[in-house]
Design goal:
- The chain contains 16 helices and 13 strands.
- It has 409 residues and is an alpha+beta fold.
- The protein folds into three domains: 86 residues, Rossmann fold; 78 residues, Dna Ligase, domain 1, CATH 3.30.1490.20; 150 residues, D-amino Acid Aminotransferase, Chain A, domain 1, CATH 3.30.470.
- The strands form three sheets. The chain has a five-stranded antiparallel beta sheet. Strands 2-1-3-4 form a four-stranded parallel beta sheet, sandwiched between helices. Strands 5-8-6-7 form a four-stranded antiparallel beta sheet, covered by helices on one side.
- A hairpin with a 2-residue loop joins strand 9 and strand 10.
- The protein binds adenosine-5'-triphosphate and magnesium ion.
């Protein structure tokens, strides 16, 4: 039996980690490999220490620098498998990801980066600012993009500093308020559907997202809300971004308008997988995490540090190739990166009992306890009954749909 330790590097979440640990425990050994799961603690480390982990799922290091530097060390020196490359997630925030996807010919809306309203408060830059900062005409830039537009930080996250701008007064008010945040101006897309896809390894779930509703109603339970070719394009864009940057646990936001798909946000180092927001889709997410981590360890999958971007740029630069054909080529590169066929085959043969195992668990009392505990930790006391009932309803729906799916399979 080959033992593996999976490390979880966590923030303040308990829902999916408990689910993950439990499913892994119930699954037991797979093909001569046994798995243990541990939560990683933060402590001093020598740069030559040998880590105990074979694989780490990280939910913290984008913001918390000590574990981030530990992740880089174990990725660089010890071959620990990480779902997201810590190198590209530090350097390729939203802005760089926009650039990369524009370079590949995707329909990223027109975007301009404007200089800081207040340059960094550092006396070293006073001379630079006085001598080299060009005055610029904010109104003219906005006029070129056209109203409405969005002003948002170049490295955005959690809706911090995002505003929708309809006219020059709002433009100046938002820019004045941006202070030391570095901002993009981006053309607003008037969309029919907001498709948010969550990717975990070779799997992608596309969900209909309703950003204006309260958190617990943002993910609609709706299947087939995209035409088949639009659905394929959305999945391909998500896989492309992830394969390009070596990200295996990420979400991608695309706006669908007419027949066009516009990606607007696809660098989310810590995508939302909360039970209270994903509800119906939560079992899928935890199951995909278990499947992908087990697949990676049993098959000895290695993380590559280099991006080999030339292979993608060669497709982008192919003269006369249509957008659709380029997407097809990108999809092949992405599927090769994720070993999609091998993964599907592995799931069908080595993890064939997992669907039923997860269904039994979600339908049973342990999961219900997790649901109740989660509601108690997220909502104020007077809302516990309401949200418990709400979530139970959605999870019962999943149990019903999943049972029907397994019955016909
Ligand atoms: N170009 C755009 N056209 C239309 N809507 C947009 C555009 N850019 C942003 N939005 C809206 O603003 C929201 C926040 O923007 P964005 O996702 O870029 O920022 P964020 O800080 O990453 O937010 P979040 O953490 O919610 O994903 C989007 O979910 C979308 O509803
Ligand atoms: Mg976003």
């Amino acid at each position: 039996m080959t033992p593996h330790i999976i490390g979880l590097l966590l923030g303040n979440e308990e829902d999916w980690p408990v689910a993950f640990e439990e499913i892994l425990r119930r699954l037991g050994p797979v093909g001569g490999h046994a798995f243990d799961c541990e939560r990683i603690t933060i402590e001093p480390f020598s740069l030559r220490d040998k880590p105990r982990y074979d694989l780490v799922i990280d939910r913290l290091a984008y913001w918390y620098y000590h574990p981030r530097e530990w992740l880089k060390k174990v990725a660089m020196m010890d071959g620990v498998y990480l779902l997201n490359s810590p190198f590209t997630f530090q350097s390729m925030e939203k802005h760089a990801a926009y650039c990369a996807m524009m370079r590949l010919g995707l329909k990223v809306p027109e975007t301009v980066l404007v200089p800081y309203k207040n340059p960094p408060d550092n006396s070293r830059y006073a001379y630079t600012a006085a001598r080299y900062n060009q005055p610029f005409d904010l109104d003219a830039i906005a006029a070129t993009i056209g109203y409405p537009l969005f002003m948002k930080p170049y490295d955005g996250g959690a809706w911090r500093g995002v505003s929708r701008i309809n006219n020059a007064d709002e433009l100046h008010a938002a820019y004045d308020a941006s202070g030391e945040m570095l901002m993009h101006l981006q053309k607003a897309i008037d969309y029919d559907v907001f498709a948010r896809s969550l990717s975990i390894g070779a799997e992608t779930m596309v969900m209909k997202f309703q950003p204006d509703l309260p958190m617990h109603e943002r993910y609609a339970v709706e299947h087939d809300f995209l035409a088949p070719d639009a659905g394929l394009e959305v999945v391909t864009i998500g896989k492309l971004v992830n394969a390009f940057f070596r990200w295996e646990f990420n979400s991608c936001e695309t706006l669908v308008s007419g027949g066009e798909i516009y990606p607007i946000d696809y660098a989310n180092a810590c995508p939302d997988v909360a039970l209270t927001s994903l509800h119906y889709y939560f079992p899928w997410a935890v199951k995909a995490l278990v499947k992908w981590t087990v697949f990676a360890m049993v098959t000895g999958r290695q993380a590559k540090l280099d991006l080999e971007t030339d292979r993608y740029f060669a497709v982008a630069d192919e003269p006369g190739m249509s957008y659709g054909d380029k997407l097809g080529e990108y999809r092949k590169l992405a599927d090769a990166f994720f070993e999609t066929d091998r993964y599907q085959d592995f799931c069908a043969t080595s993890l064939s009992g997992l669907d039923q195992l997860v269904l039994d668990w979600v339908a049973g009392p342990d999961f219900d306890q997790l649901l109740v505990r989660t509601v108690q930790s997220v909502y104020p006391a007077h809302e516990h009954d309401k949200f418990t009932a709400h979530l139970r309803g959605l999870l019962h729906l999943w149990v019903r749909d999943e049972s029907a799916r397994l019955d016909t399979a």
